Amino acid sequence: MTALNLETVAEKAGFDKLDDFFAAVARADVNSRQVQTAIHAAAKHGETPTDSAGEAMIPRQSKSTGAGSGILIVGVDRLMTGLARCCKPAPPDAIVGFVTRGKGISIHRQSCSNIVRMQERQPERLISADWGTKRDEVFPVDVVVEAMDRQALLRDISEVFSREKINVTAVNTLTRNLQARMSFTLEVQGLEQLKRALSLVQDVSGVLSAGRR
Question: Is the pTM of this model over 0.85?
Answer without folding.
Answer: no
